[in-house]
Specification:
Number of strands: 13
Distance between the termini: 23 Å
Strand order of the largest sheet: 1-9-8-7-4-2-3
CATH topology of the largest domain: Aspartate Aminotransferase, domain 2
Strand content: 5-15%
CATH class of the largest domain: Alpha Beta
Order of helices and strands: HHEHEHEHEEEHEEEHHHHEEHEEHH
């Protein structure tokens, strides 16, 4: 692997030099007012990126997995029932975490490559007249399959049933890269991490809690210490944490939010869509299909690309790393060996994306897949030339 080449994995993503420098800072007293000057702007920036006026933002030294645990342990009790669909590796892992915490999970088994079945959720919620279901879990962007789900449709299902269940959304590979509407969609807990759309190293679990979710913390009985949002809130009131924070990462998060907001969220989302469309044009030129079953499901942050039957897609990833020093994502779980993934999120441009497409082509040609060199690159070039960015700012 080469430090000089960009990565094309769906996280951690490429780190802009200005953010790397923001994280590389001298030691300060994390109980001083100076720390508050980093913490509170970072929290406010996250709130704006979530498109929320009311979410309380809690940031833990952890990853998205810690964010999942934060959502569960602060709002639920052992034996509570939750509703979740399993349509990929990350929805599967969140379900597994629920079960380990002693929660009863009603699982809607969903083919990998498909989105969350809002119609099935609606049926289940309407039938739950006793409101036994306490929370609905949703993976907004299933990173293993490159599938985006309709969170607004899940909110409509909850509202149509008049159901009071909390709505938890895993936005780890969508927030700060794809449109996310915390207030409009009635999200109760949103979860993300520092290492994807925020373009930082891994190390921060970033969560947003609605007033209803905060109310639920009063009666929740699952054990929590490190991830207790009420302890965190008390610390924030004094410009501090209940323990030692990741100061450099928080300073980086403050600057990351400033960069994203300066670029403009609509421009951020348009940039990701444009880059993703170029990758998808390349995939069509190669004669391959995406794992996502329908264009309405296509993720703008990661494409999972199916290779021909009998070919081990992992070989592309291994070959790219060994021969060209470039990182792509392997297939996970049910699609292991069947897909390879190109991450196109965070600090990325169409020019950088072209280098990844070209490398994938070389690998496939080397491995005998019959790819004509330049075919995918040309298709992506045609798309990018015909769909230039409206605004080119350094924030990307």
């Amino acid at each position: 692997m080469s430090f000089q080449n960009p990565v094309f994995i769906p996280g951690p993503t490429n780190i802009p030099e200005s953010l790397r420098k923001a994280c590389d800072m001298p030691t300060i007293d994390h109980r001083s007012p100076l720390f508050g000057q980093m913490l509170h702007p970072a929290r406010e920036g996250v709130r704006k990126i979530l498109k929320s006026d009311e979410a309380e933002i809690f940031i833990f030294p952890s990853t998205g997995t810690g964010g999942w645990e934060t959502a569960l342990t602060n709002t639920l009790s052992a034996g509570d029932k939750v509703l979740a669909a399993r349509n990929g590796m990350f929805s599967h892992r969140w379900i597994d975490m629920c079960q380990r915490h002693g929660l009863e999970v009603q699982i809607v088994e969903t083919p990998w490559g498909h989105g969350l079945p809002a119609d099935r959720y609606a049926e289940i919620l309407a039938a739950d007249t006793g409101h036994q279901i306490k929370a609905v879990l949703a993976t907004h962007n299933e990173t293993a399959t490159g599938v985006k789900s309709d969170i607004a449709a899940l909110r409509r299902a909850l509202d149509a049933a008049g159901h009071p269940a909390l709505l938890f959304v895993d936005g780890v590979s969508s927030i700060a890269s794809m449109d996310f509407r915390f207030d409009e969609w009635g999200v109760d807990v949103a979860v993300t991490g520092s290492q994807k759309g925020f373009m930082l190293p891994a190390g921060l679990a970033i969560t947003g809690f609605s007033p209803r979710a905060l109310d639920a913390t009063r009666d929740a009985k699952l054990s929590r210490t490190f991830f207790d949002v009420n302890d965190m809130a008390k610390g924030y009131a004094n410009n501090a944490y209940p323990y030692t924070p990741a100061v450099g990462l928080l300073n980086g998060l403050r600057q990351s939010c400033d960069m994203l907001l300066a670029e403009g969220l609509d421009n951020v989302y348009a940039r990701h869509h444009r880059i993703a469309e170029g990758v998808r044009a390349a995939v069509r030129a190669w004669g391959f299909d995406l794992c996502a079953a329908d264009p309405s499901l296509y993720s703008d942050t990661v494409s999972a690309i199916r290779t021909p039957e009998g070919f081990n897609a992992t070989d592309i990833v291994t070959h790219a790393a060994q021969k060209y020093g470039v990182a792509f994502g392997v297939g996970l779980g049910e699609v292991a060996g069947k897909v390879f993934r190109i991450g196109h999120l965070g600090s990325l441009t169409d020019v950088m994306a072209l280098s990844g497409i070209a490398t994938a082509e070389m690998c496939m040609a080397d491995l005998g897949l019959g790819i004509r060199l330049g075919s995918g690159v040309a298709a992506a070039q045609d798309y990018y030339r015909g769909h230039p960015a409206e605004s080119r700012k350094d924030a990307a």
